Amino acid sequence: MKFKTLMIIKAAVCLGFGPLLLFVPGQLLNLLGTSFGPGAALTAREYGAALFGNLFLTWIARKAEDCIARRAIIWHLFIYDAIALVATVVIQLSGGLNVLGWGIVAVYLVFTIGFGYFLIPQNISK
């Protein structure tokens, strides 16, 4: 997969979930089988804001050539997705989400592998 393609896919996922978490977090969290309260609302909306940040980062940087800034973006997205992957697996295994939570795990796994691929020196310029 090309860097640009991965960035566009990441932007699309962020566009799909960012607005939901900002504007209707209760409905999304209920769909995932978790409770919703004031603390969850704050966390969900902050996460929605982070997804909008990632949306703009991935969309604007999708055509970036190999340079230090592109490598920094790849590292950022790799670490972000890897930490989110671990956190989501822990929550999923503890019963915090219903079966749809495995879909979130899969998304983070794909992005962690995808951005990890571009950290391999011979792949960074693809």
Summarize the model shown.
With 126 residues, the chain is mainly α. The protein contains 5 helices and no strands.
Oligomer: single chain
**What fraction, in percent, of the residue positions are helical?**
over 70%
Rg for CA atoms: 15 Å
Uncertain segments: none
Structural class: mainly alpha
Q: Tally the helices.
A: 5
Mean pLDDT: 93
Main sheet makeup: none
Number of domains: 1
- Percent of sequence in beta strands: under 5%
- Sum up the overall morphology in one term: globular
Q: H/E element string?
A: HHHHH
- Ends distance: 8 Å
Number of strands: 0
How would you describe this protein?
This protein is mostly helical. It has one domain. The chain is 75% helix and 0% strand. It has 5 helices and no strands. The relative contact order is 0.14. The mean pLDDT is 93.
Feature tags:
mainly alpha
Write the SSE topology.
Layout: H1 3-23, H2 25-31, H3 38-60, H4 68-93, H5 101-117
Helix pairs in contact: 1-2, 1-3, 4-5
